[in-house]
Specification:
The protein contains 5 helices and 6 strands, in the order H-H-E-H-E-E-H-E-H-E-E. It is of the alpha+beta class. A hairpin with a 2-residue loop joins strand 2 and strand 3. The chain is globular, with a radius of gyration of 18 Å.
């Protein structure tokens, strides 16, 4: 299937750099992982934490665990831009860390549910045209 995609892209875009950029390498594509610790002692703090979680979902992130969200980005630049947007939405008393790992590294993730190994999430099937 990947070779079919290459042919279509070459035909539509005439090959060259644009076509190569559209076939994102696993070493160039990035996963952005947002880990956070937000206070939830008061009603206002819980509301702010909920707003932050909803913001992450609106930005295309998916919940991995309660305070860990992740998103696939075809390029490092897109991952950086997403991180900047997340940084502007952090509640004032929040602690947030954002990690960037390549798609190849993410593919080596091991998930366990109880004592059993679970599947690793796969990158979304999408073709991004800019």
């Amino acid at each position: 299937m990947r070779e079919d995609l290459r042919r279509v892209i070459r035909k539509q875009f005439g090959g060259g750099t644009v076509a190569a950029d559209l076939l994102t390498s696993g070493y160039r594509a990035m996963w952005t992982i947002v880990c956070f610790d937000l206070p939830v002692g008061s009603k206002a703090e819980r509301r702010n934490a909920t707003r932050f979680r909803k913001f992450l979902l609106d930005q295309g992130f998916t919940m991995k665990q309660w305070s860990v969200y992740h998103r696939y980005h075809p390029t490092r630049d897109q991952a950086e831009a997403a991180a900047e947007r997340v940084g502007t939405a952090v509640p004032s008393l929040g602690s947030v860390s954002i990690y960037f790992i390549t798609d190849k590294q993410y593919g080596q993730t091991r998930n366990y549910e109880g004592a059993y190994r679970a599947e690793t999430e796969e990158k979304p099937d999408q073709l991004t045209l800019l």
